[in-house]
Design goal:
By secondary structure, the chain is α+β, with helices and mostly antiparallel strands. The protein has 3 domains: about 220 residues, 4-Layer Sandwich (Glutamine Phosphoribosylpyrophosphate, subunit 1, domain 1), CATH 3.60.20; about 240 residues, Rossmann fold; about 50 residues, no CATH class. About 45% of the residues lie in helices and about 20% in strands. It has 21 helices and 20 strands. Helix 4 packs across helix 5, helix 6 runs antiparallel to helix 15 and helix 9 crosses helix 21. The relative contact order is 0.11.
């Protein structure tokens, strides 16, 4: 797991110290080794500050990489170069089928390391016939995993992102120069918000300009599993393989699980234990919150090792700037949901955990949220099927990018077995009628729950009703109290800035000390102050 960044200057060359600046701002994503590419020249080091010596020159195309060691030899550093020297690549993510792909390359390629990332550059070399964009589009369709990658042949630069959007990637245009990076904070300039490269899309940059084209996207499979028993058996098989994939090549002795005591995280912890792994579960909440109570009860019942972070108002208020800086957004719901995961990851980091697992996406695959009952009632099961697919494909916007940044803020890689491509295909082949029995079905996720029971989760746990993270952890009420305490300061600052929308909020809420608009504005003030501390000289005035 890593960070990537780079630039492409269409009109000649520019100073390359921007690469160091971007890597430094994202060093938490890859604290172990660092490397740069500058017009064919490559430098690598285990000390990021030593890169400054190599970045005094100018370059037409430059790329930077920092690595968090998970898979591969200890001394492996990127960028990777093809055998013929034509292609150079940087990669952030994990490719779970890299060993299988590696067997196709051994006869004609010198694979120098055990890294999953190196396999990609050799696959590209095998496919490249002078058109780098075409090669990338062909190769990404072979990759089973999560990735954001960039590759250059010295003439063009192509950047790609995995179909689900597990790994974030942003870019910004500064006149004739295009910059890209794993996180927005490396590209904040005080004027424009960096653009997101959407999942499955490919960014092609050359002297002719910049284009975004469609790459490798998931296709919605037909519904052809209509028998409940068949659905459960196929799903169990796919999920077990998904967990096993996400253990390939791991040297880690301890693995973490983001844990709420709910069925999704319990099942993942159970499957990891079945594989003989030492699992430590992490949960965050108030002392009396639903998640903490459930997590303690479940951990004791299943013999799981559990560590908790108990929070109060002062804890949350203290870390709000950290949360917003790392999530790179200030939406009220985003901030609320981020707090438990951020603190769980921080506690895991103190235990030297480098890989954590999450139960994310089971609700989108198996209709876990209560509003899906309304879809069945109002529009029927076919519409439910399409809504689940839509929600799955938009998961990156409000969930995946946030969770990646929160865990990577503590140099931890987060893995999501429910987002395995074969799990997704299997789940979306299952009739939605097997997921929700009727519009009044309060449990939902019927196939998922039954599979959990058959995989060792006690029935009383498998059929626990879901509680949203922000209420299950007690965060929602705490955020409201913090907003109430700070509202006078926020109102004064907003009045000074003469923001019309906030005057509207004051009018609408009258003397009510807490209103969502004012709370959002308070959080926005924090975000704006944070952004100002990140603006680099090379991006301080974006050309129009």
């Amino acid at each position: 797991m890593c960070t990537i960044c780079g630039h492409f200057a269409r009109d000649g060359k520019i100073k390359s110290n921007d690469i160091y600046d971007m890597l430094k701002k994202m060093e938490h994503r890859g604290p172990d080794t660092h490397g740069i590419y500058m017009d064919g020249n490559i430098a690598q080091t285990d000390d990021i500050d030593k890169l400054q010596d190599a970045l005094f020159g100018e370059s037409h195309i430059a790329m930077g990489h920092s690595r968090l060691k998970i898979v591969g030899e200890e001394n492996t550093s990127q960028p990777f170069t093809s055998c013929d020297g034509k292609l150079s690549l940087i990669h952030n993510g994990e490719i779970y089928n890299y060993k299988k792909l590696r067997t196709f390359l051994m006869r004609h390629h010198e694979v120098r390391t055990g890294s999953d990332s190196e396999i990609i550059v050799h696959l590209l070399e095998e496919t490249y016939k002078g058109n780098l964009l075409d090669a990338v589009r062909k190769v990404t369709s072979l990759l089973d995993g999560m990735y954001a990658l960039a590759v250059t042949d010295g003439r063009s630069l192509v950047v790609a992102r995995d179909p689900i959007g597990k790994k974030p990637l942003y870019f910004i245009r500064n006149g004739s120069i295009t910059y890209f990076a794993s996180e927005k904070k490396a590209l904040w300039n005080g004027t424009d918000d960096p653009e997101r490269l959407n999942p499955g899309d490919v960014l092609n940059i050359d002297d002719g300009g910049i284009t975004v084209v469609e790459g490798s996207h998931l296709q919605l499979p037909q519904i052809d599993i209509v028998d409940f028993r068949e659905a459960v058996e196929r799903y169990k098989k796919a999920l077990i393989k998904a967990v096993q994939k996400r253990l390939t090549g791991l040297r880690e002795t301890n693995l973490g699980v983001i844990f709420s005591g709910g069925i999704d995280s319990v099942l993942i912890a159970q499957l990891l234990q079945r594989e003989g792994k030492n699992v430590i579960c992490y949960c965050t909440g108030t002392e009396e919150s639903g998640d903490i109570i459930a997590a303690r009860s479940v951990a004791e019942m299943l013999g799981l090792r559990l560590k908790t972070t108990i929070i109060d108002e002062s804890t949350v208020e203290e870390i709000l700037p950290e949360i917003i800086r790392n999530v790179e957004e200030c939406g009220l719901l985003q901030v609320e949901v981020a707090v438990p995961m951020y603190l769980a990851a921080r506690l895991a980091s103190e235990d030297n955990i480098r890989v954590m697992y999450t139960g994310q996406a089971a609700d989108e695959l198996f209709a876990g949220y209560p509003w899906y009952n309304g879809v069945v009632r109002d529009s029927g099961y076919l519409q439910l099927h399409e809504r689940l697919w839509e929600d799955l494909n938009y998961l990156y916007t409000d969930t995946l990018e946030r969770e990646d940044k929160l865990t990577m803020a503590h140099s931890i890689e987060l893995r999501a077995p429910y987002l395995d491509r074969d799990v997704i295909r299997t789940a979306m082949r299952i009739s939605p009628k097997l997921k929700i029995e009727s519009e009044s079905d309060s449990l939902r996720k019927r196939v998922h729950r039954q599979a959990a029971v058959e995989l060792g989760v006690p029935a009383n746990l498998a059929f626990r009703i879901k509680d949203p993270a922000q209420s299950g952890s007690g965060i929602h009420s705490i955020i409201k109290k913090i907003a109430r305490m700070n509202i006078k300061q926020a109102v004064t600052e907003l009045a000074d800035r003469n923001l019309e929308q906030d005057k509207g909020s004051l009018y609408r809420y009258g003397d009510e000390p807490y209103g969502e608009e004012l709370t959002r504005s308070f959080l926005q003030e924090i975000e704006e102050r944070i952004k100002l501390t990140y603006i680099p000289e090379f991006l301080s005035a974006v050309q129009k």
